[in-house]
Write a structure and sequence with these properties.
heterodimer, A: 136 residues, alpha/beta, Transcription Regulator spoIIAA, six-stranded mixed β-sheet, B: 157 residues, alpha+beta
Chain lengths: 136, 157
């Protein structure tokens, strides 16, 4: 599948959000998109996924879902911190995607500390979480 | 479950104090402040930092969201966070003058059933060794203790 980066968005200094959607032609993306497989969109988050950034993440995931990307990959590989508000944005997207007949797959943070919150809340058993982009 | 306590004061000397407005951006100052507080623990600091930061962050965000609420105009001294390091534990006390909090009335998410909200206190309780809350006059006082010794049952997250 050919993908292109759509609407790179940076929110403040702590988190960047880059969305990849399936399109006919690549449109000059200068970052490597996740190997999204059968998914229809991927959102790559880099930095801190906390209460400051959660509203922007929630809005972007909602926008992608409404645009038809209900089979969504969220790449958390380079996320360094996740709190309950960040987790809530992901859980909400999962709920909405499933209502649309899709799902949300998470690519696990490589940072153990960022991954910890999923274990503490047992969301590591709720989400489909994969360790590498290729496996998503 | 961690110990529950109604005691609300750090025993011994406060090592450092952070005073911030009750807003999410200001809560990010915890990270740098904790790094300074925990520096004296030497090689333990990195491990302690992530555990303590996430728990105290969630307590502070609970205060931002519930004690002060959306209508509150943040003031410079909404949140006062004291920290102390002793040979056995890290002690953190968080104080605010917002609305009182009934810690026992907080609904717990059902295990295995995904909910969107309600995980802040769950996260805190899994990271601390003792958690206390008391309202004294017009002040809410949260106390958190993080033991430095390895958990003999291996339960440390």
């Amino acid at each position: 599948m050919t993908t292109a980066r759509e609407k790179p968005t940076t929110t403040g200094q702590a988190l960047s959000i880059t969305t990849f959607v399936a399109v006919a032609e690549a449109a000059g993306a200068d970052a490597e998109p996740p190997a999204v497989g059968p998914s229809s969109a991927a959102v790559v988050l880099v930095g801190r996924l906390d209460a400051v950034e959660a509203p922007a993440v929630r809005a972007e995931l909602d926008r992608v879902l409404r645009a038809g990307g209900s089979r969504l990959v969220v790449d958390l590989v380079a996320v360094t911190f996740v709190d309950s508000a960040g987790l809530a944005a992901l859980v909400r997207a999962r709920r909405d995607a499933r209502q649309l007949g899709g799902d949300v797959v998470l690519i696990s943070p490589s940072d153990r500390d960022a991954l910890r919150v999923f274990g503490l809340t047992q969301f590591d058993e709720v989400f489909r979480m994969v360790d590498s982009r290729a496996a998503a | 479950m961690p110990e529950r306590s109604s005691a609300g004061s750090i025993v011994g000397e406060v090592g450092s104090t952070l005073v911030i407005p009750a807003d999410a951006m200001s809560v990010r100052e915890l990270s740098g402040w904790l790094a300074g507080l925990l520096a004296e623990t030497g090689p333990e600091a990195t491990v302690l930092q992530t555990r303590v930061e996430l728990a105290v962050h969630e307590v502070c965000m609970n205060i931002v969201d519930h004690a002060y609420g959306a209508e509150h105009v943040p003031g410079t001294d909404d949140l006062t966070i004291d920290g102390a390091v002793d040979p056995d534990a890290i002690h953190i006390e968080v104080r605010d003058r917002g609305a009182g909090f009934d810690i026992d009335a907080v609904p717990k998410p059902e295990p295995g059933v995904p909910h969107i909200r309600g995980y802040g206190l769950v996260i805190v309780e899994k990271l601390v060794d003792a958690l206390g809350y008391v309202r004294r006059d017009d002040t809410n006082i949260w106390s958190l203790r993080f033991d430095r010794k390895p958990d003999p049952q291996g339960r440390r997250p």
